[in-house]
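Hi everyone, sorry if this is the wrong subforum. Our group has a chain we'd like a structural model of before ordering constructs, and none of us has done structure prediction before. Sequence below.
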Amino acid sequence: MIIKGKSRGNGAQLGQYVITPLENERVEVFEIHGVAATNVPDAVIEMDALAAGTRCENPLYHASINTRARERMSDEQRRRAIERLAEELGFSGQPYVAVIHEKKGREHCHVVWARIDIEKMRAISDSNNYLKHEIVARELEREFGHERVQGAHAEREGKPRPKRTPSRAEMLQTKQTGLSTQQVTEQVTQLWRSTDNGKSFAAALSDAGYVLARGDRRDFVIIDPKCGTHSLARRIDGARVRDVRERMADLDPSELPSVAQAKAIQRARQIERGEGVSYEASPAATRDTGRKAPEADHGRSHGTHEKPGAEARALDGATKGISSIFDGIASIFERGLSGDTNEPDPQPAPEPGPREPEVEPSVLANEEQKTKRRQELAREFGRDLEDERDAESERERRRLR
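Answer:
Right subforum, don't worry. Here is the predicted structure as C-alpha coordinates:
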Protein backbone atom coordinates (compact mmCIF):
# COMPACT_ATOMS: atom_id res chain seq x y z
CA MET A 1 0.00 0.00 0.00
CA ILE A 2 1.22 3.48 -0.85
CA ILE A 3 -0.24 6.61 0.75
CA LYS A 4 0.63 10.07 -0.56
CA GLY A 5 -0.66 13.48 0.44
CA LYS A 6 0.00 17.15 1.10
CA SER A 7 -1.68 20.37 2.17
CA ARG A 8 -3.04 22.63 -0.52
CA GLY A 9 -5.56 25.34 -1.36
CA ASN A 10 -7.75 26.18 -4.37
CA GLY A 11 -10.74 24.12 -3.33
CA ALA A 12 -12.64 24.93 -6.54
CA GLN A 13 -9.96 23.26 -8.67
CA LEU A 14 -9.39 20.34 -6.30
CA GLY A 15 -13.08 19.54 -5.90
CA GLN A 16 -13.55 19.44 -9.64
CA TYR A 17 -10.39 17.39 -10.17
CA VAL A 18 -11.32 14.50 -7.87
CA ILE A 19 -14.65 13.88 -9.63
CA THR A 20 -13.37 14.30 -13.23
CA PRO A 21 -12.64 10.97 -14.96
CA LEU A 22 -9.51 12.01 -16.90
CA GLU A 23 -7.88 8.63 -17.69
CA ASN A 24 -9.90 6.72 -15.10
CA GLU A 25 -12.47 4.17 -16.22
CA ARG A 26 -14.56 4.70 -13.08
CA VAL A 27 -15.10 7.54 -10.61
CA GLU A 28 -17.34 6.90 -7.60
CA VAL A 29 -18.18 9.22 -4.71
CA PHE A 30 -17.58 7.14 -1.57
CA GLU A 31 -18.38 9.56 1.29
CA ILE A 32 -19.15 13.21 2.01
CA HIS A 33 -18.88 13.90 5.73
CA GLY A 34 -19.26 16.92 8.00
CA VAL A 35 -20.46 19.51 5.46
CA ALA A 36 -23.82 20.84 4.31
CA ALA A 37 -23.08 20.35 0.61
CA THR A 38 -24.33 17.20 -1.09
CA ASN A 39 -21.84 17.05 -3.96
CA VAL A 40 -18.04 16.92 -3.95
CA PRO A 41 -17.12 20.23 -5.63
CA ASP A 42 -19.39 22.26 -3.35
CA ALA A 43 -18.23 20.28 -0.30
CA VAL A 44 -14.56 21.02 -1.00
CA ILE A 45 -15.32 24.71 -1.61
CA GLU A 46 -17.20 24.76 1.70
CA MET A 47 -14.18 23.24 3.50
CA ASP A 48 -11.87 25.70 1.76
CA ALA A 49 -14.05 28.60 2.97
CA LEU A 50 -13.40 27.66 6.62
CA ALA A 51 -10.03 29.39 6.30
CA ALA A 52 -11.64 32.80 5.69
CA GLY A 53 -11.00 33.85 9.30
CA THR A 54 -7.40 32.60 9.36
CA ARG A 55 -4.15 33.28 7.55
CA CYS A 56 -3.86 29.73 6.28
CA GLU A 57 -3.24 29.55 2.53
CA ASN A 58 -3.46 25.73 2.29
CA PRO A 59 -6.56 24.85 4.34
CA LEU A 60 -7.12 21.44 2.69
CA TYR A 61 -5.25 18.15 2.89
CA HIS A 62 -5.42 15.92 -0.18
CA ALA A 63 -4.34 12.29 0.22
CA SER A 64 -4.51 9.22 -1.99
CA ILE A 65 -4.58 5.62 -0.75
CA ASN A 66 -3.23 3.22 -3.38
CA THR A 67 -3.26 -0.57 -3.42
CA ARG A 68 -2.18 -3.13 -5.99
CA ALA A 69 -4.71 -4.24 -8.61
CA ARG A 70 -5.17 -7.60 -6.90
CA GLU A 71 -5.58 -6.04 -3.44
CA ARG A 72 -8.93 -4.29 -3.59
CA MET A 73 -10.38 -3.04 -0.32
CA SER A 74 -13.95 -3.58 0.77
CA ASP A 75 -16.04 -0.56 1.78
CA GLU A 76 -15.44 -1.42 5.42
CA GLN A 77 -11.67 -1.64 4.91
CA ARG A 78 -11.63 1.62 2.94
CA ARG A 79 -13.54 3.38 5.71
CA ARG A 80 -11.09 1.93 8.24
CA ALA A 81 -8.14 3.19 6.16
CA ILE A 82 -9.60 6.71 6.02
CA GLU A 83 -10.27 6.77 9.76
CA ARG A 84 -6.78 5.47 10.65
CA LEU A 85 -5.06 7.96 8.34
CA ALA A 86 -7.16 10.81 9.77
CA GLU A 87 -6.20 9.75 13.29
CA GLU A 88 -2.47 9.71 12.49
CA LEU A 89 -2.58 13.07 10.68
CA GLY A 90 -4.66 14.71 13.42
CA PHE A 91 -7.79 15.10 11.28
CA SER A 92 -10.18 12.92 13.32
CA GLY A 93 -13.61 14.56 13.36
CA GLN A 94 -12.73 16.95 10.53
CA PRO A 95 -15.01 17.29 7.46
CA TYR A 96 -13.87 15.27 4.46
CA VAL A 97 -14.85 13.83 1.11
CA ALA A 98 -13.67 10.51 -0.35
CA VAL A 99 -13.78 9.53 -4.02
CA ILE A 100 -12.76 6.18 -5.58
CA HIS A 101 -10.92 6.13 -8.91
CA GLU A 102 -10.29 3.02 -10.99
CA LYS A 103 -7.59 3.10 -13.68
CA LYS A 104 -6.39 0.08 -15.65
CA GLY A 105 -7.99 -2.29 -13.16
CA ARG A 106 -6.41 -0.66 -10.08
CA GLU A 107 -8.43 1.25 -7.50
CA HIS A 108 -7.18 4.18 -5.46
CA CYS A 109 -9.05 6.47 -3.11
CA HIS A 110 -8.75 10.27 -2.95
CA VAL A 111 -9.53 11.87 0.42
CA VAL A 112 -9.77 15.62 1.03
CA TRP A 113 -9.92 16.88 4.63
CA ALA A 114 -10.47 20.37 6.02
CA ARG A 115 -7.37 21.36 7.99
CA ILE A 116 -8.99 24.24 9.88
CA ASP A 117 -9.89 23.50 13.51
CA ILE A 118 -13.10 25.56 13.90
CA GLU A 119 -12.90 25.76 17.72
CA LYS A 120 -9.36 27.14 17.69
CA MET A 121 -9.60 28.81 14.25
CA ARG A 122 -6.19 27.62 13.17
CA ALA A 123 -4.79 25.00 10.82
CA ILE A 124 -3.93 21.52 12.06
CA SER A 125 -0.20 20.89 11.61
CA ASP A 126 0.87 18.85 8.59
CA SER A 127 4.45 18.23 9.76
CA ASN A 128 6.10 14.80 9.34
CA ASN A 129 3.30 13.78 7.02
CA TYR A 130 5.46 11.43 4.90
CA LEU A 131 6.39 9.41 7.99
CA LYS A 132 2.75 9.31 9.11
CA HIS A 133 1.65 8.05 5.70
CA GLU A 134 4.06 5.13 5.91
CA ILE A 135 3.19 4.28 9.53
CA VAL A 136 -0.46 3.91 8.54
CA ALA A 137 0.35 2.04 5.31
CA ARG A 138 2.48 -0.58 7.14
CA GLU A 139 -0.25 -1.07 9.80
CA LEU A 140 -3.01 -1.48 7.23
CA GLU A 141 -0.92 -3.91 5.15
CA ARG A 142 -0.64 -6.21 8.15
CA GLU A 143 -4.29 -5.71 9.12
CA PHE A 144 -5.67 -6.37 5.61
CA GLY A 145 -3.15 -9.06 4.68
CA HIS A 146 -1.68 -7.00 1.83
CA GLU A 147 1.83 -7.40 0.46
CA ARG A 148 4.34 -5.11 2.15
CA VAL A 149 5.79 -2.12 0.29
CA GLN A 150 9.24 -0.96 1.39
CA GLY A 151 9.06 2.72 2.30
CA ALA A 152 11.70 5.36 2.88
CA HIS A 153 10.71 6.51 6.38
CA ALA A 154 9.01 3.89 8.57
CA GLU A 155 10.19 0.34 9.40
CA ARG A 156 13.31 0.46 7.26
CA GLU A 157 14.96 -2.36 9.27
CA GLY A 158 18.38 -1.68 7.76
CA LYS A 159 17.16 -1.91 4.18
CA PRO A 160 18.44 0.66 1.66
CA ARG A 161 16.25 3.66 0.98
CA PRO A 162 14.15 2.98 -2.15
CA LYS A 163 14.65 5.22 -5.14
CA ARG A 164 12.35 8.20 -5.41
CA THR A 165 9.40 7.63 -7.74
CA PRO A 166 8.36 10.35 -10.22
CA SER A 167 5.87 12.86 -8.87
CA ARG A 168 2.54 13.49 -10.56
CA ALA A 169 3.91 16.75 -12.01
CA GLU A 170 6.89 14.88 -13.47
CA MET A 171 4.64 12.21 -14.98
CA LEU A 172 2.44 14.90 -16.51
CA GLN A 173 5.51 16.65 -17.92
CA THR A 174 6.74 13.36 -19.40
CA LYS A 175 3.40 12.89 -21.12
CA GLN A 176 3.50 16.42 -22.56
CA THR A 177 7.11 16.48 -23.73
CA GLY A 178 7.76 12.83 -24.57
CA LEU A 179 11.00 12.91 -22.52
CA SER A 180 10.88 10.69 -19.43
CA THR A 181 12.72 11.55 -16.24
CA GLN A 182 14.68 8.31 -16.68
CA GLN A 183 15.91 9.36 -20.14
CA VAL A 184 17.00 12.77 -18.88
CA THR A 185 18.65 11.26 -15.79
CA GLU A 186 20.70 8.81 -17.84
CA GLN A 187 21.95 11.48 -20.24
CA VAL A 188 22.68 14.13 -17.60
CA THR A 189 24.43 11.58 -15.35
CA GLN A 190 26.69 10.59 -18.23
CA LEU A 191 27.59 14.25 -18.86
CA TRP A 192 28.20 14.78 -15.14
CA ARG A 193 30.64 11.87 -14.95
CA SER A 194 32.51 12.97 -18.08
CA THR A 195 33.26 16.48 -16.73
CA ASP A 196 35.11 17.71 -13.66
CA ASN A 197 33.87 21.27 -12.97
CA GLY A 198 30.80 23.43 -13.29
CA LYS A 199 31.81 25.33 -16.43
CA SER A 200 32.69 22.22 -18.42
CA PHE A 201 29.49 20.55 -17.24
CA ALA A 202 27.38 23.55 -18.29
CA ALA A 203 29.08 23.52 -21.71
CA ALA A 204 28.43 19.78 -22.09
CA LEU A 205 24.75 20.32 -21.19
CA SER A 206 24.47 23.05 -23.82
CA ASP A 207 26.06 20.84 -26.47
CA ALA A 208 23.55 18.11 -25.60
CA GLY A 209 20.63 20.51 -26.07
CA TYR A 210 19.93 21.44 -22.43
CA VAL A 211 20.04 24.86 -20.76
CA LEU A 212 21.40 25.26 -17.23
CA ALA A 213 19.42 27.86 -15.25
CA ARG A 214 19.13 29.26 -11.74
CA GLY A 215 16.09 27.89 -9.94
CA ASP A 216 13.36 29.73 -8.08
CA ARG A 217 13.57 27.32 -5.12
CA ARG A 218 16.69 25.32 -6.01
CA ASP A 219 20.27 26.32 -6.79
CA PHE A 220 20.29 24.87 -10.30
CA VAL A 221 17.71 23.51 -12.72
CA ILE A 222 17.95 22.35 -16.31
CA ILE A 223 15.51 22.92 -19.16
CA ASP A 224 15.38 20.02 -21.61
CA PRO A 225 15.04 20.46 -25.40
CA LYS A 226 11.23 20.17 -25.10
CA CYS A 227 11.07 22.92 -22.43
CA GLY A 228 10.59 20.51 -19.52
CA THR A 229 11.98 21.67 -16.16
CA HIS A 230 14.18 19.41 -14.00
CA SER A 231 15.96 19.79 -10.67
CA LEU A 232 19.65 19.25 -11.49
CA ALA A 233 20.41 17.23 -8.34
CA ARG A 234 17.51 14.86 -9.07
CA ARG A 235 18.76 14.17 -12.59
CA ILE A 236 22.24 13.05 -11.52
CA ASP A 237 22.22 9.46 -10.36
CA GLY A 238 24.08 9.04 -7.06
CA ALA A 239 24.75 12.76 -6.53
CA ARG A 240 23.60 14.71 -3.50
CA VAL A 241 22.78 18.41 -3.30
CA ARG A 242 26.09 18.97 -1.51
CA ASP A 243 27.98 17.22 -4.31
CA VAL A 244 26.30 19.42 -6.91
CA ARG A 245 27.12 22.61 -4.99
CA GLU A 246 30.77 21.64 -4.66
CA ARG A 247 31.12 20.81 -8.36
CA MET A 248 29.29 23.97 -9.48
CA ALA A 249 31.26 26.28 -7.17
CA ASP A 250 33.09 27.84 -10.14
CA LEU A 251 29.80 29.11 -11.61
CA ASP A 252 28.01 32.26 -10.45
CA PRO A 253 24.26 31.45 -10.37
CA SER A 254 23.42 35.13 -10.93
CA GLU A 255 25.01 34.91 -14.37
CA LEU A 256 22.76 32.02 -15.40
CA PRO A 257 19.38 32.62 -17.06
CA SER A 258 16.20 32.33 -15.02
CA VAL A 259 13.77 29.49 -15.73
CA ALA A 260 11.64 31.79 -17.92
CA GLN A 261 14.68 32.98 -19.86
CA ALA A 262 15.99 29.43 -20.31
CA LYS A 263 12.64 28.33 -21.71
CA ALA A 264 12.73 31.29 -24.08
CA ILE A 265 16.14 30.11 -25.28
CA GLN A 266 14.81 26.60 -25.88
CA ARG A 267 11.78 27.90 -27.77
CA ALA A 268 14.02 30.08 -29.91
CA ARG A 269 16.17 27.02 -30.66
CA GLN A 270 13.07 25.08 -31.65
CA ILE A 271 12.06 27.84 -34.06
CA GLU A 272 15.58 27.95 -35.48
CA ARG A 273 15.48 24.19 -36.08
CA GLY A 274 12.10 24.55 -37.79
CA GLU A 275 10.25 22.64 -35.06
CA GLY A 276 6.89 23.47 -33.54
CA VAL A 277 7.13 25.35 -30.24
CA SER A 278 6.54 23.13 -27.20
CA TYR A 279 3.61 24.24 -25.10
CA GLU A 280 3.03 23.41 -21.44
CA ALA A 281 -0.59 22.43 -20.98
CA SER A 282 -2.16 24.01 -17.93
CA PRO A 283 -3.70 21.76 -15.25
CA ALA A 284 -7.14 22.99 -16.33
CA ALA A 285 -6.44 21.98 -19.91
CA THR A 286 -5.42 18.47 -18.90
CA ARG A 287 -8.76 17.97 -17.16
CA ASP A 288 -10.80 18.55 -20.31
CA THR A 289 -11.33 15.01 -21.58
CA GLY A 290 -14.86 15.27 -22.89
CA ARG A 291 -16.16 12.69 -20.41
CA LYS A 292 -19.15 13.25 -18.19
CA ALA A 293 -18.71 13.64 -14.47
CA PRO A 294 -20.25 11.09 -12.06
CA GLU A 295 -24.03 11.07 -11.92
CA ALA A 296 -23.95 11.67 -8.16
CA ASP A 297 -22.65 15.17 -8.72
CA HIS A 298 -25.15 16.65 -11.18
CA GLY A 299 -25.89 20.28 -10.44
CA ARG A 300 -22.45 21.03 -9.02
CA SER A 301 -20.85 24.44 -9.30
CA HIS A 302 -17.75 24.24 -11.48
CA GLY A 303 -16.02 27.52 -10.70
CA THR A 304 -12.73 26.54 -12.39
CA HIS A 305 -12.81 28.63 -15.55
CA GLU A 306 -9.96 31.02 -16.29
CA LYS A 307 -10.47 34.48 -14.86
CA PRO A 308 -11.51 37.20 -17.34
CA GLY A 309 -8.58 39.14 -18.71
CA ALA A 310 -6.00 36.45 -17.95
CA GLU A 311 -4.65 36.55 -21.49
CA ALA A 312 -4.45 40.34 -21.39
CA ARG A 313 -2.52 40.15 -18.10
CA ALA A 314 -0.16 37.59 -19.59
CA LEU A 315 0.52 39.81 -22.61
CA ASP A 316 1.01 42.81 -20.32
CA GLY A 317 3.52 40.80 -18.29
CA ALA A 318 5.32 39.84 -21.47
CA THR A 319 5.56 43.48 -22.53
CA LYS A 320 7.02 44.55 -19.18
CA GLY A 321 9.55 41.73 -18.94
CA ILE A 322 10.45 41.04 -22.53
CA SER A 323 13.60 43.19 -22.47
CA SER A 324 15.13 41.06 -19.69
CA ILE A 325 14.27 37.86 -21.55
CA PHE A 326 16.10 39.04 -24.63
CA ASP A 327 19.42 39.43 -22.73
CA GLY A 328 21.85 36.86 -23.99
CA ILE A 329 19.48 35.44 -26.65
CA ALA A 330 18.91 38.45 -28.89
CA SER A 331 20.59 37.05 -31.97
CA ILE A 332 18.74 33.70 -31.82
CA PHE A 333 15.39 35.29 -31.03
CA GLU A 334 15.70 37.88 -33.83
CA ARG A 335 16.10 35.09 -36.35
CA GLY A 336 12.93 33.49 -34.95
CA LEU A 337 10.90 36.69 -35.18
CA SER A 338 12.16 37.55 -38.65
CA GLY A 339 11.17 34.16 -39.99
CA ASP A 340 14.78 33.16 -40.70
CA THR A 341 14.33 29.49 -39.79
CA ASN A 342 15.59 26.27 -41.30
CA GLU A 343 12.16 25.74 -42.82
CA PRO A 344 11.53 27.74 -46.03
CA ASP A 345 8.66 30.22 -46.08
CA PRO A 346 5.57 28.87 -47.82
CA GLN A 347 5.49 31.97 -50.05
CA PRO A 348 9.03 33.47 -50.36
CA ALA A 349 9.27 37.24 -50.70
CA PRO A 350 10.32 38.59 -54.11
CA GLU A 351 13.90 39.61 -54.83
CA PRO A 352 14.82 43.21 -53.86
CA GLY A 353 13.92 45.64 -56.60
CA PRO A 354 12.27 48.98 -57.27
CA ARG A 355 9.57 49.81 -54.77
CA GLU A 356 6.12 49.08 -56.11
CA PRO A 357 3.15 51.31 -55.37
CA GLU A 358 1.11 48.27 -54.29
CA VAL A 359 2.22 45.68 -51.70
CA GLU A 360 2.66 42.20 -53.16
CA PRO A 361 0.30 39.52 -51.73
CA SER A 362 3.27 37.28 -50.88
CA VAL A 363 4.78 40.04 -48.73
CA LEU A 364 1.47 40.48 -46.91
CA ALA A 365 1.32 36.72 -46.30
CA ASN A 366 4.86 36.70 -44.88
CA GLU A 367 4.14 39.70 -42.66
CA GLU A 368 0.96 38.07 -41.37
CA GLN A 369 2.90 34.89 -40.58
CA LYS A 370 5.56 36.88 -38.67
CA THR A 371 2.89 38.78 -36.74
CA LYS A 372 1.22 35.54 -35.68
CA ARG A 373 4.60 34.16 -34.55
CA ARG A 374 5.28 37.27 -32.48
CA GLN A 375 1.89 37.04 -30.82
CA GLU A 376 2.35 33.33 -30.16
CA LEU A 377 5.75 33.82 -28.51
CA ALA A 378 4.55 36.84 -26.54
CA ARG A 379 1.74 34.79 -25.02
CA GLU A 380 4.18 32.05 -23.99
CA PHE A 381 6.60 34.54 -22.48
CA GLY A 382 3.73 36.21 -20.65
CA ARG A 383 2.70 32.92 -19.06
CA ASP A 384 6.24 32.18 -17.94
CA LEU A 385 6.69 35.65 -16.47
CA GLU A 386 3.35 35.49 -14.70
CA ASP A 387 4.34 32.15 -13.15
CA GLU A 388 7.66 33.63 -12.06
CA ARG A 389 5.94 36.64 -10.46
CA ASP A 390 3.47 34.35 -8.65
CA ALA A 391 6.36 32.28 -7.29
CA GLU A 392 8.13 35.43 -6.09
CA SER A 393 4.93 36.67 -4.40
CA GLU A 394 4.50 33.30 -2.68
CA ARG A 395 8.08 33.41 -1.34
CA GLU A 396 7.52 36.95 -0.04
CA ARG A 397 4.30 35.95 1.73
CA ARG A 398 6.06 33.01 3.39
CA ARG A 399 8.92 35.26 4.47
CA LEU A 400 6.53 37.77 6.05
CA ARG A 401 4.73 34.98 7.94
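For your construct planning: Confidence is low (pLDDT under 50) at residues 281-359. The chain has 13 helices and ten strands.
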